[in-house]
Amino acid sequence: MTPTNEKRRRRRHSPPASTAGASSSTVASSLAVQAGALTPSSRLTAPADSSSSPPVDLIPDVARLLTSLEDFFSLRAACRAYLAALPTSRPLLASQAPLLLVTLYPSFTEALFHPRLRRLHRFRLPWSHHLPPSRYTLFYAHGFLVTATTAASNYPPRLLLLHLFTGEQLRLPKVPAPFSRVILTDDLLVVIFLPGRATVQHCHPGDALWRVVSTAAPHVFHDLIFVNRTLYALVGLRLATLELSGGSLELSFLGGEYDDTNRPEGDRFMLGECGGEVLLISEERVEMIVYRVFRWVSEERKWVMITSLGGRSLFLGFNGFAACIDQDYPGVRGDCLYSAGSRLGEWHEYSLVDGTCDVYSAEYPGAPPLNNSSPIRPSVWVFPSLC
What is the DSSP string of 129-189? Predict the structure, then answer.
Protein backbone atom coordinates (compact mmCIF):
# COMPACT_ATOMS: atom_id res chain seq x y z
CA MET A 1 0.00 0.00 0.00
CA THR A 2 1.12 3.58 -0.61
CA PRO A 3 2.00 5.39 2.66
CA THR A 4 -0.80 7.69 3.85
CA ASN A 5 -0.43 11.44 3.54
CA GLU A 6 -0.29 11.73 7.32
CA LYS A 7 2.81 9.56 7.38
CA ARG A 8 4.55 11.32 4.51
CA ARG A 9 6.74 14.06 5.83
CA ARG A 10 9.89 15.85 4.79
CA ARG A 11 12.62 16.51 7.29
CA ARG A 12 15.91 18.34 6.84
CA HIS A 13 19.01 17.36 8.76
CA SER A 14 22.72 17.84 9.00
CA PRO A 15 24.65 14.66 8.20
CA PRO A 16 23.81 11.88 10.68
CA ALA A 17 26.14 11.57 13.62
CA SER A 18 28.42 8.56 14.10
CA THR A 19 26.43 6.27 16.37
CA ALA A 20 25.79 2.59 15.83
CA GLY A 21 28.93 1.75 13.88
CA ALA A 22 31.30 4.03 15.74
CA SER A 23 32.60 1.40 18.13
CA SER A 24 33.66 -1.05 15.42
CA SER A 25 35.30 1.75 13.44
CA THR A 26 37.13 2.98 16.54
CA VAL A 27 38.35 -0.51 17.37
CA ALA A 28 39.43 -1.12 13.81
CA SER A 29 41.22 2.23 13.64
CA SER A 30 43.04 1.37 16.84
CA LEU A 31 44.10 -1.95 15.36
CA ALA A 32 45.29 -0.15 12.25
CA VAL A 33 47.50 2.11 14.34
CA GLN A 34 48.91 -0.89 16.18
CA ALA A 35 49.47 -2.58 12.84
CA GLY A 36 51.70 0.22 11.68
CA ALA A 37 49.56 3.08 10.29
CA LEU A 38 52.49 5.39 10.81
CA THR A 39 53.31 8.93 9.74
CA PRO A 40 53.91 9.40 6.00
CA SER A 41 57.66 9.64 6.43
CA SER A 42 57.88 6.18 7.98
CA ARG A 43 55.28 4.30 5.96
CA LEU A 44 56.35 1.26 3.92
CA THR A 45 59.48 0.96 6.05
CA ALA A 46 58.29 -0.56 9.32
CA PRO A 47 58.84 -4.31 9.59
CA ALA A 48 55.66 -6.37 9.64
CA ASP A 49 57.02 -8.74 12.26
CA SER A 50 57.33 -6.04 14.93
CA SER A 51 56.19 -7.26 18.35
CA SER A 52 53.67 -4.39 18.54
CA SER A 53 52.04 -5.26 15.18
CA PRO A 54 49.60 -8.05 14.35
CA PRO A 55 50.98 -10.85 12.16
CA VAL A 56 50.54 -10.43 8.42
CA ASP A 57 48.10 -13.32 8.18
CA LEU A 58 45.69 -11.45 10.51
CA ILE A 59 45.82 -8.19 8.59
CA PRO A 60 43.02 -9.11 6.10
CA ASP A 61 40.74 -9.80 9.09
CA VAL A 62 41.60 -6.39 10.51
CA ALA A 63 40.92 -4.73 7.16
CA ARG A 64 37.46 -6.30 6.93
CA LEU A 65 36.49 -4.47 10.14
CA LEU A 66 37.46 -1.03 8.88
CA THR A 67 34.60 1.31 7.99
CA SER A 68 36.75 4.23 6.85
CA LEU A 69 38.54 4.14 3.51
CA GLU A 70 41.33 6.30 4.93
CA ASP A 71 41.94 3.72 7.65
CA PHE A 72 42.08 0.96 5.03
CA PHE A 73 44.73 2.75 2.97
CA SER A 74 46.65 3.78 6.07
CA LEU A 75 46.85 0.12 7.01
CA ARG A 76 48.04 -0.79 3.49
CA ALA A 77 50.71 1.91 3.67
CA ALA A 78 52.13 0.68 6.97
CA CYS A 79 54.66 -1.64 5.33
CA ARG A 80 55.26 -3.62 2.17
CA ALA A 81 54.02 -6.86 3.69
CA TYR A 82 50.69 -5.29 4.58
CA LEU A 83 50.43 -3.73 1.12
CA ALA A 84 50.89 -7.15 -0.49
CA ALA A 85 48.31 -8.70 1.86
CA LEU A 86 45.64 -6.07 1.12
CA PRO A 87 44.70 -5.84 -2.57
CA THR A 88 41.75 -3.56 -3.32
CA SER A 89 39.17 -6.34 -3.64
CA ARG A 90 35.50 -6.68 -2.78
CA PRO A 91 36.01 -9.09 0.15
CA LEU A 92 38.44 -6.74 1.88
CA LEU A 93 36.36 -3.62 1.20
CA ALA A 94 33.01 -5.23 1.99
CA SER A 95 32.47 -3.16 5.15
CA GLN A 96 33.11 0.18 3.41
CA ALA A 97 29.93 2.25 3.29
CA PRO A 98 28.80 4.28 0.24
CA LEU A 99 30.50 7.65 -0.19
CA LEU A 100 29.67 10.86 -2.05
CA LEU A 101 32.10 12.33 -4.56
CA VAL A 102 31.91 16.07 -3.84
CA THR A 103 33.58 19.19 -5.19
CA LEU A 104 35.84 21.47 -3.16
CA TYR A 105 35.34 25.17 -3.74
CA PRO A 106 36.98 27.26 -5.22
CA SER A 107 39.69 24.82 -6.41
CA PHE A 108 37.19 22.50 -8.20
CA THR A 109 39.13 19.48 -6.96
CA GLU A 110 37.12 16.46 -5.84
CA ALA A 111 37.05 14.53 -2.59
CA LEU A 112 35.10 11.62 -1.12
CA PHE A 113 32.69 12.51 1.68
CA HIS A 114 31.72 9.87 4.24
CA PRO A 115 28.09 10.72 5.15
CA ARG A 116 28.07 9.05 8.56
CA LEU A 117 31.56 9.92 9.73
CA ARG A 118 31.39 13.44 8.19
CA ARG A 119 34.93 12.99 6.90
CA LEU A 120 36.58 13.98 3.65
CA HIS A 121 38.89 11.47 1.95
CA ARG A 122 41.18 13.58 -0.22
CA PHE A 123 42.95 12.20 -3.28
CA ARG A 124 44.57 13.51 -6.42
CA LEU A 125 42.93 13.17 -9.84
CA PRO A 126 44.89 13.55 -13.11
CA TRP A 127 42.82 16.60 -14.12
CA SER A 128 42.57 18.27 -10.70
CA HIS A 129 45.00 21.10 -11.55
CA HIS A 130 42.90 22.49 -14.41
CA LEU A 131 40.74 25.59 -13.81
CA PRO A 132 37.97 25.63 -14.73
CA PRO A 133 37.71 21.83 -14.48
CA SER A 134 38.50 20.13 -17.76
CA ARG A 135 36.62 16.98 -16.73
CA TYR A 136 33.63 16.08 -14.64
CA THR A 137 32.56 12.77 -13.16
CA LEU A 138 29.40 11.17 -14.53
CA PHE A 139 29.15 7.83 -12.80
CA TYR A 140 30.88 5.17 -10.68
CA ALA A 141 30.79 1.41 -11.27
CA HIS A 142 33.10 -1.59 -10.78
CA GLY A 143 35.82 0.58 -9.21
CA PHE A 144 35.90 3.07 -12.10
CA LEU A 145 34.97 6.73 -12.19
CA VAL A 146 33.50 7.46 -15.63
CA THR A 147 34.46 11.02 -16.56
CA ALA A 148 33.89 13.27 -19.58
CA THR A 149 35.73 16.30 -20.92
CA THR A 150 33.78 19.53 -20.71
CA ALA A 151 32.54 21.30 -23.83
CA ALA A 152 34.81 24.25 -23.11
CA SER A 153 37.99 22.16 -23.16
CA ASN A 154 37.21 19.51 -25.75
CA TYR A 155 34.19 18.90 -27.98
CA PRO A 156 32.97 16.37 -28.94
CA PRO A 157 33.68 15.00 -25.46
CA ARG A 158 35.96 12.09 -24.64
CA LEU A 159 35.27 9.60 -21.88
CA LEU A 160 37.92 8.34 -19.48
CA LEU A 161 37.56 5.42 -17.09
CA LEU A 162 39.73 5.99 -14.02
CA HIS A 163 40.05 3.19 -11.48
CA LEU A 164 39.74 4.89 -8.13
CA PHE A 165 41.93 2.40 -6.25
CA THR A 166 44.60 1.38 -8.75
CA GLY A 167 44.92 4.52 -10.89
CA GLU A 168 44.34 2.57 -14.12
CA GLN A 169 43.16 4.84 -16.95
CA LEU A 170 41.16 3.67 -19.97
CA ARG A 171 40.49 6.27 -22.67
CA LEU A 172 37.59 6.07 -25.10
CA PRO A 173 37.22 7.81 -28.48
CA LYS A 174 35.23 10.99 -29.09
CA VAL A 175 31.50 10.60 -28.55
CA PRO A 176 29.62 11.26 -31.81
CA ALA A 177 26.09 11.89 -30.44
CA PRO A 178 24.70 13.70 -27.35
CA PHE A 179 24.18 11.68 -24.15
CA SER A 180 23.54 12.13 -20.43
CA ARG A 181 23.31 8.60 -19.02
CA VAL A 182 26.13 6.06 -18.72
CA ILE A 183 26.07 2.32 -18.01
CA LEU A 184 29.22 0.26 -17.36
CA THR A 185 29.21 -3.53 -17.30
CA ASP A 186 31.65 -5.77 -15.43
CA ASP A 187 33.47 -6.53 -18.70
CA LEU A 188 33.82 -2.73 -19.25
CA LEU A 189 31.29 -2.29 -22.03
CA VAL A 190 30.26 1.38 -21.89
CA VAL A 191 26.71 2.16 -23.02
CA ILE A 192 25.56 5.78 -23.26
CA PHE A 193 22.26 7.33 -24.31
CA LEU A 194 20.07 10.40 -23.98
CA PRO A 195 16.66 9.63 -22.41
CA GLY A 196 13.83 10.37 -24.79
CA ARG A 197 15.90 9.55 -27.88
CA ALA A 198 16.03 6.45 -30.09
CA THR A 199 19.85 6.22 -30.21
CA VAL A 200 22.21 4.06 -28.13
CA GLN A 201 26.02 4.27 -28.32
CA HIS A 202 28.34 1.54 -27.05
CA CYS A 203 32.09 1.01 -26.92
CA HIS A 204 34.78 -1.13 -25.26
CA PRO A 205 38.13 0.34 -24.17
CA GLY A 206 40.48 -0.10 -27.13
CA ASP A 207 37.78 0.37 -29.78
CA ALA A 208 38.62 2.99 -32.39
CA LEU A 209 35.04 4.27 -32.69
CA TRP A 210 31.71 4.18 -30.90
CA ARG A 211 28.99 2.03 -32.41
CA VAL A 212 25.81 4.07 -32.84
CA VAL A 213 22.52 2.17 -33.20
CA SER A 214 18.89 3.32 -33.23
CA THR A 215 15.47 1.76 -32.81
CA ALA A 216 12.63 2.24 -35.24
CA ALA A 217 10.07 5.02 -34.79
CA PRO A 218 8.04 5.72 -32.76
CA HIS A 219 10.01 3.99 -29.99
CA VAL A 220 12.46 5.96 -27.82
CA PHE A 221 14.47 4.87 -24.79
CA HIS A 222 13.64 6.37 -21.40
CA ASP A 223 16.14 4.26 -19.47
CA LEU A 224 18.46 1.27 -19.80
CA ILE A 225 19.97 -1.13 -17.27
CA PHE A 226 22.01 -4.35 -17.24
CA VAL A 227 20.68 -7.06 -14.90
CA ASN A 228 22.30 -10.51 -14.94
CA ARG A 229 24.05 -9.71 -18.24
CA THR A 230 20.78 -8.79 -19.94
CA LEU A 231 20.24 -5.25 -21.18
CA TYR A 232 16.73 -4.04 -20.37
CA ALA A 233 15.11 -0.96 -21.88
CA LEU A 234 12.28 1.21 -20.64
CA VAL A 235 10.22 2.40 -23.62
CA GLY A 236 7.44 4.57 -22.25
CA LEU A 237 6.47 2.34 -19.33
CA ARG A 238 6.97 -0.88 -21.28
CA LEU A 239 9.84 -3.20 -20.38
CA ALA A 240 11.88 -4.71 -23.20
CA THR A 241 15.16 -6.54 -23.68
CA LEU A 242 17.73 -4.93 -25.94
CA GLU A 243 20.31 -6.91 -27.89
CA LEU A 244 23.31 -4.94 -29.17
CA SER A 245 25.10 -6.59 -32.07
CA GLY A 246 27.71 -4.56 -33.93
CA GLY A 247 25.89 -1.88 -35.87
CA SER A 248 22.35 -3.02 -35.09
CA LEU A 249 19.99 -3.64 -32.17
CA GLU A 250 17.03 -5.90 -31.50
CA LEU A 251 14.21 -4.72 -29.23
CA SER A 252 11.87 -7.34 -27.73
CA PHE A 253 8.94 -6.17 -25.57
CA LEU A 254 8.04 -8.21 -22.49
CA GLY A 255 4.68 -6.57 -21.78
CA GLY A 256 1.87 -4.64 -23.38
CA GLU A 257 0.92 -0.98 -23.44
CA TYR A 258 -0.16 0.99 -20.37
CA ASP A 259 -3.06 3.42 -20.22
CA ASP A 260 -4.50 5.69 -17.53
CA THR A 261 -6.24 2.79 -15.82
CA ASN A 262 -3.21 0.56 -15.26
CA ARG A 263 -0.11 2.78 -15.48
CA PRO A 264 2.27 2.84 -12.47
CA GLU A 265 1.86 5.98 -10.38
CA GLY A 266 4.51 8.69 -10.59
CA ASP A 267 5.94 11.52 -12.68
CA ARG A 268 9.52 10.50 -13.42
CA PHE A 269 10.50 6.86 -14.01
CA MET A 270 13.80 4.96 -14.08
CA LEU A 271 14.91 1.34 -14.08
CA GLY A 272 16.71 -0.27 -11.16
CA GLU A 273 17.55 -3.69 -9.81
CA CYS A 274 17.49 -5.47 -6.47
CA GLY A 275 18.57 -9.03 -5.81
CA GLY A 276 18.79 -9.74 -9.53
CA GLU A 277 15.24 -8.52 -10.23
CA VAL A 278 14.35 -5.62 -12.54
CA LEU A 279 12.67 -2.69 -10.82
CA LEU A 280 10.79 0.39 -11.95
CA ILE A 281 11.34 3.38 -9.66
CA SER A 282 9.03 6.39 -9.83
CA GLU A 283 9.57 9.84 -8.38
CA GLU A 284 6.81 12.32 -7.69
CA ARG A 285 7.30 15.88 -6.47
CA VAL A 286 4.24 17.54 -4.99
CA GLU A 287 4.54 18.91 -1.47
CA MET A 288 7.40 16.51 -0.88
CA ILE A 289 9.36 13.87 -2.78
CA VAL A 290 7.62 10.50 -2.97
CA TYR A 291 9.29 7.39 -4.39
CA ARG A 292 7.52 4.21 -5.40
CA VAL A 293 9.14 0.91 -6.37
CA PHE A 294 7.61 -1.64 -8.75
CA ARG A 295 8.84 -5.18 -9.43
CA TRP A 296 8.50 -6.79 -12.84
CA VAL A 297 6.35 -9.91 -12.54
CA SER A 298 7.11 -11.93 -15.66
CA GLU A 299 4.18 -14.32 -15.18
CA GLU A 300 1.71 -11.42 -15.24
CA ARG A 301 3.80 -9.35 -17.69
CA LYS A 302 3.35 -6.17 -15.66
CA TRP A 303 4.78 -3.93 -12.90
CA VAL A 304 3.57 -4.60 -9.34
CA MET A 305 4.26 -2.11 -6.55
CA ILE A 306 6.28 -3.30 -3.54
CA THR A 307 7.02 -1.68 -0.16
CA SER A 308 9.90 -3.93 0.92
CA LEU A 309 13.35 -4.51 -0.55
CA GLY A 310 14.15 -7.41 1.76
CA GLY A 311 16.27 -5.11 3.92
CA ARG A 312 18.33 -3.85 0.99
CA SER A 313 18.86 -0.20 0.05
CA LEU A 314 18.70 1.50 -3.35
CA PHE A 315 20.96 4.39 -4.34
CA LEU A 316 19.96 6.80 -7.07
CA GLY A 317 22.24 9.25 -8.82
CA PHE A 318 21.01 12.61 -10.04
CA ASN A 319 20.40 11.16 -13.52
CA GLY A 320 19.44 7.57 -12.74
CA PHE A 321 19.97 4.35 -10.79
CA ALA A 322 23.37 3.85 -9.11
CA ALA A 323 23.41 0.61 -7.09
CA CYS A 324 21.63 -1.80 -4.75
CA ILE A 325 23.34 -2.46 -1.43
CA ASP A 326 22.37 -5.69 0.31
CA GLN A 327 24.55 -5.54 3.40
CA ASP A 328 23.97 -3.81 6.71
CA TYR A 329 26.26 -0.77 6.77
CA PRO A 330 26.32 1.55 9.79
CA GLY A 331 24.17 4.57 8.99
CA VAL A 332 22.44 2.94 6.00
CA ARG A 333 18.84 1.88 6.61
CA GLY A 334 17.23 -1.08 4.92
CA ASP A 335 14.17 -0.67 2.70
CA CYS A 336 15.21 2.89 1.92
CA LEU A 337 16.12 4.86 -1.20
CA TYR A 338 19.12 7.21 -1.08
CA SER A 339 18.96 9.79 -3.83
CA ALA A 340 21.56 12.42 -4.75
CA GLY A 341 19.81 15.80 -4.76
CA SER A 342 20.06 18.68 -7.21
CA ARG A 343 21.67 20.91 -4.58
CA LEU A 344 25.41 20.48 -4.16
CA GLY A 345 26.23 17.86 -1.53
CA GLU A 346 22.57 17.08 -0.83
CA TRP A 347 20.96 13.65 -0.60
CA HIS A 348 17.55 12.30 0.35
CA GLU A 349 16.77 9.27 2.49
CA TYR A 350 13.30 7.96 1.66
CA SER A 351 11.77 5.12 3.67
CA LEU A 352 9.47 2.71 1.83
CA VAL A 353 8.21 1.53 5.23
CA ASP A 354 6.66 4.76 6.52
CA GLY A 355 6.99 7.22 3.62
CA THR A 356 9.25 9.68 5.43
CA CYS A 357 11.85 11.65 3.48
CA ASP A 358 14.89 13.00 5.34
CA VAL A 359 17.01 15.57 3.54
CA TYR A 360 20.73 15.80 4.39
CA SER A 361 23.48 18.20 3.34
CA ALA A 362 27.20 17.45 3.33
CA GLU A 363 28.99 20.01 5.47
CA TYR A 364 32.74 20.08 4.95
CA PRO A 365 35.58 22.60 4.56
CA GLY A 366 35.45 23.87 0.99
CA ALA A 367 31.77 23.12 0.41
CA PRO A 368 30.44 25.41 -2.37
CA PRO A 369 27.88 28.03 -1.32
CA LEU A 370 24.31 27.12 -2.17
CA ASN A 371 23.96 30.10 -4.50
CA ASN A 372 27.17 29.28 -6.34
CA SER A 373 26.80 29.42 -10.16
CA SER A 374 30.18 27.85 -11.00
CA PRO A 375 30.32 24.73 -13.23
CA ILE A 376 30.03 22.20 -10.38
CA ARG A 377 28.04 19.02 -10.93
CA PRO A 378 25.73 17.18 -8.50
CA SER A 379 27.42 14.65 -6.26
CA VAL A 380 28.10 11.09 -7.46
CA TRP A 381 27.66 7.98 -5.29
CA VAL A 382 30.81 5.86 -4.92
CA PHE A 383 30.71 2.28 -3.60
CA PRO A 384 34.11 0.95 -2.44
CA SER A 385 32.50 -2.38 -1.55
CA LEU A 386 31.53 -2.81 -5.23
CA CYS A 387 34.99 -2.19 -6.66
Answer: T-SS-SEEEEEEETTEEEEEE-TTT-SS-EEEEEETTT--EEEEEEP-S---EEEE-TT--
